[in-house]
Amino acid sequence: MEHDYDYLIIGGGMAGDAAARAIRDAEPAARIGLVGAEGDPPYKRPPLSKGLWKGDETPASIDLDTAAHATLHLGRRVRRLDRAARRAGDDRGDGYRYRRLLLATGATPRRLPFDGDGRVIHFRTLADYRRLRDQAVAGTHVAVVGGGFIGSELAAALCGAGCRVSLVFPGASIGSGRYPSALAAFLDDYYRARGVEVLAGAKVVDGRAGEAGVELTLSDGRRLPVDTVVAGLGVTPDLALAEQAGLVVGDGVEVDAQLRTSDPAIWAAGDLAAFFNPALGRRLRVEHEDAAVGMGAHAGRCMAGAEEAYATLPYFYSDLFDLGYEAVGLLDARLQTVEDWSEPHRKGVVYYLDAGRVRGVLLWNVWGQVDAARALIAEPGPFVADALRGRIPHDG
Ligand SMILES: NC(=O)c1ccc[n+]([C@@H]2O[C@H](COP(=O)([O-])OP(=O)(O)OC[C@H]3O[C@@H](n4cnc5c(N)ncnc54)[C@H](O)[C@@H]3O)[C@@H](O)[C@H]2O)c1
């Protein structure tokens, strides 16, 4: 079947949804189509590793109701893009003509080199959440592989669901690489005190399914028999379509300030788009909800004729048991860090500096200071490390 749209959105994540809304606002009569690979309509992704486990959200409450703004074509992957004909073709033989196109295909989880007879869940989607929820009943022993965002959030969530949790990752500590080392070490202790077996410094290299579950082999030779395995090993941007279509691609699909790709009829937003951030002075690809929603909406407005420049700094947040934080800019522990604790590792601010400029701010159980952090990163400096302490108050 052939479809004809003014605006075609490829990708059914939060960026795609936000773009559909923005286009609908700007052009109420527009014909908008959205093709998504998942069977579920677009939904809020953060609750998959947070609110759905605490009962703050349900699968129904995270639905974004995108169908109110666009015609949805779900469970389909666009495989071919013919830029000259302005036509996309999906894996079920349908074709979509467009006037303007948004690429919002996101990213794909990295995979372990085995699948334990289909028992390993590489966690990314609502379908993955449903599978894990079915398997991770109270008392189940779950191996959580990866100590980044998904690993740290899911380990806490699964503990809350009454599971026995072993958290395995190659780094020195949970979130090392992002947090200063003392904070990362504090987190290891925090997780251990709540019953999580923290297995730092080890990769998972093999896994064999048995009758009862999966036996993992770690890089240090240890064996870990568990009932279920869930992995968060990072993601790689989904660039195949952009590459096939001959768009300019580096670390991601390269876009200009209006989020337009090297083809003037095609925009890109979300995990796969590499944009230049003026405050940080570099091209970035950001894999967080705030960027997906903000860039999706921005691209939608620009597709409908706006000429605004996208200059938003990365923002993200996380919940780890009863700890929580917000962060702005670059959280890279290789930068110089300045720690300012009012209560060590419970409440404080960490500043990340590079050549006298603030590049990132971690607001650890400090709320209401995101705008102050953004303003600080926009200041040219130079900053002296000690002068930063107290710069952002700990109580809003
Ligand atoms: N709060 C948030 O903003 C949030 C929450 C969840 C997910 N996300 C996003 O989802 C994406 C995926 O998250 P993620 O946690 O998978 O990525 P991540 O990059 O945060 O963490 C990847 C982890 O996997 C580990 N790892 C890699 N290979 C391994 C192996 N063989 N064995 C054991 N560990 C291994 C790494 O050392 C690291 O600890 C990211 O883009 C992230 O930004 C964000």
UniProtKB/TrEMBL annotation:
It comes from the Bacteria. It catalyses: A + NADH + H(+) = AH2 + NAD(+). Pfam families: AIF_C, Pyr_redox_2. Residues 5-295 form the FAD/NAD(P)-binding domain. InterPro entries: AIF_C, FAD-oxidoreductase/Apoptosis, FAD/NAD-bd_sf, FAD/NAD-binding_dom, FAD/NAD-linked_Rdtase_dimer_sf. PANTHER family: APOPTOSIS-INDUCING FACTOR 1, APOPTOSIS-INDUCING FACTOR 1, MITOCHONDRIAL. The lineage of its organism: Bacteria, Pseudomonadati, Pseudomonadota, Gammaproteobacteria, Lysobacterales. It comes from Fulvimonas yonginensis. Residues 299-342, 343-378 form the Mitochondrial apoptosis-inducing factor C-terminal domain. Its cofactor is FAD. The keyword Flavoprotein applies. Keywords: Apoptosis, FAD, Flavoprotein, NAD, Oxidoreductase, Transit peptide. The keyword Signal does not apply. This is FAD-dependent oxidoreductase.
